[in-house]
Design a protein that fits this description.
By secondary structure, the chain is mainly beta. Strands 1, 2, 3, 4, 5, 6, 7 and 8 form an eight-stranded antiparallel beta sheet that branches. The chain is extended and about 65 Å long.
């Protein structure tokens, strides 16, 4: 079977506008984007009554789940006011991460409310032609859903 690789241009972060019939738009500044899924666990190492001297096996339960989106790119001043307002508000914003393929190719999008938790600006005269870089981190603050793409 041939590989069906998702190109960089098919991995798209979109931010919701918060309106009743929410529109999602993609910021233009990111050159790197990532989503990380994390499960928090609690664990126990019960001692075996038959062989108490043996190291116990770990038992674990999932206690929570979250997603973190990170992005890195050049600061686009056309988008900067929106990012600044979101960070300063401390409010959640619905975000989508699109796998831009048809449903038959497992395409679709993840969606959840996210908080804008980190922004790091870096200015280096000797890299990126002297342009300012930004790194952002968004953390989910509600249920994450996946919606398959329409069409085949």
């Amino acid at each position: 079977m041939a590989l069906d690789l998702l190109p960089w241009t098919g991995f798209i972060l979109k931010l919701g506008d918060g309106e009743a019939s929410e529109d999602f738009t993609a910021p233009t500044m990111f050159r790197q984007k990532a989503i990380n899924f994390t499960s928090n666990t609690s664990e126990a190492f019960p001692v075996d009554d038959v062989t108490p001297e043996a190291p116990p096996w770990r038992l674990a339960n999932t206690t929570g789940r979250m997603a973190t989106i990170t992005g890195t790119g050049l600061v686009n001043m056309n988008d900067e006011g929106l990012w600044r307002a979101w960070f300063m508000s401390g409010l959640e914003k619905n975000c989508q991460l699109l796998f831009n393929k048809p449903s038959a190719a497992n395409g679709g999008h993840y969606q959840a409310p996210f908080l804008y938790t980190s922004a790091n600006y870096t200015a280096d005269r000797d890299s990126e032609a002297g342009r300012v870089l930004i790194e952002v981190e968004l953390q989910s603050c509600g249920p994450l859903t996946f919606t398959p793409a329409s069409g085949s």
